[in-house]
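How it folds
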Amino acid sequence: MSAYGFAHLRSRRHHPDILEYLERIQATLDPFDGHFLVHGAPAEVLEGEWPGSMVLIEFPDLQAARAWYASPAYQAIRRLRSDHIEGDLLLVEGVGPAYDPRERAAKLQAQAEAAR
């Protein structure tokens, strides 16, 4: 099941380290079949607030995403980003093509009833 690295970048400082990070990050993703789906494009905010920008990277599975983040290659460049951009980074497993939110609703309903 696909997994995603999601970053919410709240503030950016243009710095030469950021350019180096951008030049080097794809080489860290390649061994783990990671690829960018979203990379800093402007977001159209429909509800709430969204300060900053987002990055979304897809991996074949959560194991590959974790291995990428822990890899020596990524750890060697991580500070090039984290020293100059305030934000959050998380890994999350996706849902498959057969996902049905009604099943999730039924499971939550059953849990709520069991808790009564």
Notes: The CA atoms of residues 10 and 51 lie 6 Å apart. Strands lie at 3-12, 35-39, 53-59, 85-93. DSSP finds four helices and four strands in the chain.
